[in-house]
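Per reviewer request, we include the raw input and output of the structure prediction for the construct analysed in the revised manuscript.
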Amino acid sequence: MEFRDYYKILGVPRSASADEIRSAFRKLARQYHPDVAKDKKQAEAKFREINEAYEVLGDPEKRKRYDQLGTAWQEGQEFRPPPQWRTDRWAETPEEFAFHVGGTGFSDFFEAFFSDGGGLGSLFGRRRTSGMGAPRTGADVEADLAITLEEALQGTTKEITVRRQEPGLPGYRTQTYQVSIPAGVREGQRIRLAGQGQPGPPGGRPGDLFLRIRYARHPYFRVEGSDLFYDLELPPWSAALGTQVEIPTLTGKVRLRIPPGSSSGQKFRLAGLGMPREQGGRGDLYVTLTIRMPKASTAEEKELWERLARASRPEANKGR
């Protein structure tokens, strides 16, 4: 199993703060997002790598666990975790895996330790049994499948590979599938590939392969249920005087009017521009305003701020 240096992938030191990690992710994710990059294939691979790194380093608990490895490992090295990391989700050699799903958007390294119970953790599956307890089918298998928010909204096709060991036969058999992801799919939904799980016992049928949808991290939006949230930074004069700004959405840009006198923390609702709802339709996109205060780096700028302070609070300047 290949070790992944997530700090190197995001281009940050191991001492980086949560804000620095978030900023690095957003910068790289915007650069390599498949919808904007010219080389789609290369961008998709890089975007998956960046997403995986942020999935771990952007989560305090996962980052703490990752940091337990220390600095001894380098990207590309064959990885053997410490004894305390032994779980039933990891085998001593790749050949010990009886079933493996590729093309899901996550590396073996991530799946083994950070998949929250998905991925390789459930690839050993469960057999369905008859009322007498005897297995009648092969084990069902479940793996996470990462897709972008745009793909979830519009639908897409993903190519996955399945490597399984046939009972009584040497080696492994690898098959490739084109999996259709329907438009409007929601996070947590499962796509069933009938008969593509573990081989069944004599007289029984194979189990099924279930692909559980996970939304990849987005450079602009965070998801809560069916709603999207976007943080908009504005300088104080734009908030005070009002302005019009372009807001990214999953299907293009829209213009939003910011009224004069807007304050930090104020929210603006763009109806129907969120993620698909279970009952149909789409959620909303909420834009949260943050006032970005510039530094008064020159004497002229400082004088302008002082004049503004005197004009804004005349009662506070009486007697000066």
